[in-house]
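Quarterly update from the structural biology core.
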Amino acid sequence: MGHTIRLTTAQALIKFLNQQYICVDGVETPFVEGIFTVFGHGNVLGIGQALEQDPGHLKVFQGKNEQGMAHSAIAYAKEKLRRSIYAVTASSGPGSANLVTAAATALANNLPVLLLPADTFASRQPDPVLQQFEQEYSFAVTTNDALKPVSRYWDRITRPEQLMSSLLRAFEVLTDPARSGPATICICQDTEGEAFDYDEGFFRKRVHYMDRLQPSVRELDAAEELIRASKKPLLLVGGGAKYSGAREELIAFSQAYHIPLVETHAGKSTVEYTFANHLGGTGVLGTSAANAAAREADLVIGIGTRYTDFTTSSKTAFDFEKTRFLNINVSRMQGYKLEGVPVVADAKVAITALHERLDGYQSQFGSRVSELKAAWDAERDRLGSVRFGREGFDPEIKGHFSQEVLNEYADALGTELPQTAALIAINEAVDKESVVVCSAGSLPGDLQRLWNVEAPNTYHLEYGYSCMGYEVAGALGIRLAKPDREVYAMVGDGSFLMLHSELVTALQTGNKINLMLFDNSGFGCINNLQMGNGGGSFHCEFRNHEGNVMNIDYAKIAEGYGAKVYRANTVEEVKAAVEDAKRQTVSTLIEMKVLPKTMSEGYDNWWNVGVAEVSENQAVQAAYERRAEMLKTAKQY
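Predicted structure, tokenized:
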């Protein structure tokens, strides 16, 4: 045994984090950038003391809400393509419980984050301590057990020496492209302060190599055979392609063999929309062009995608009678989906290898690609020019509210601004290198369809979990990852009310973010789902006890925090506000009152949702019958 150094468990933790590095394509960088904290009992005297004494290179940020700061950490890791992370520490009890939603968000999106929730006493002598509950069947159960199902790796530290094996295991998971996700290490609060003679070798510089997984010859042979046998193959770009950095390879592959390219939310901006063969997002929130190409394709080449229901339109987006699937993914599990032929490999490497094998091949899409793209571009232009009229929209927007209710909203909110027009105006006004972030509500659909990306890796949508409240916190994480970029959080009033506390952290630390707040006074997306399946408008609108539409001054809230605020209710005002916000050094909020039912709707898509099988409402009965018919065409596994 070598020399030892006497440290507390918490001090050993911080010393270890400072010595973790990652190497990708020969480039070596520190892996842990810093740590977000909300101090309380259980972590302030342990991890807090260790950070105060010697944080090393770790940047320390004081969060305002445990879920919010964890979302910032998750967004940072996503924006850094999983090659750098923040750790997150919370106090025992409710502080740790607040991490559950964020952990689930990271798990659903395969994003690395190190969660360090404090735990109850290992000694159990003071039990039950403040914020500790008691279960009669086991005193070993604590709040942190709720993090088990939403963690890729979970452990509880009750003795200082346990930290060593636990951290090594956690970082193996955090740096694995196939299994990346949240690693949770719960440290008992008395253990945090207990000392141990740690071997100095534990704190040596440790490099984690993220080597690119190579495809086998057998896999490449099978993939080549599939592609050569296909007439209309389609590239479906998922998040794995973005993390792999496969932009140039995808463009070259698509150009050489005239294969159209469509994308998932996670894959969007891997290749910019200005690329000629790019047809936009696919599935429930897809463009008419992408969904038409998906319907016509006889081979789908899925690259780093999980094939979620929104990507596959609940397994109705493709002609399963004729369409086969070739799945390139670092995860063997994902490669098996939809009975696909798996190529378990890094996207960049696999596309390069296939490109070298397909000399002489051409798809038969021909001019169809440019025709589909032109038709969609015309539809987008139409949506951008829609205007409200007291006697109806011109051109009409599909919706479920009567004209009378829409007029009521226009009067209550003092606006006639359609959501689609506002979003496209923002898209035209921001600098192309800016990053846009969103997560939930109707805005992800409008962004997937209408937000045209002109620069790679500038679109950040958390849609693996579609977590309301991610948007503002996520913007802070992105700004930390790209401090030289403007960051725009597209957030609905519902999501803003759910969680916006990290706006204060952004202001406090001087990390400028821009909040684009779309206020339609309600949970508009779910109201659409409700009414589109036969229901009435039931508890999804924001109305007061007298039944009147609420008009909340969100700008005043942000102004009170210290942000620069704007109120913009016309396209011209929106563009002017964006231009002025660019000149600010402080975080901004642009409040836009938009009319409900003015978001874009679906194009040749379907979403499988639960509809009541028994109802007295004929509209609900009809919705159930429509679902039953669609299920006949959906793939069942």
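The chain has 25 helices and 23 strands.
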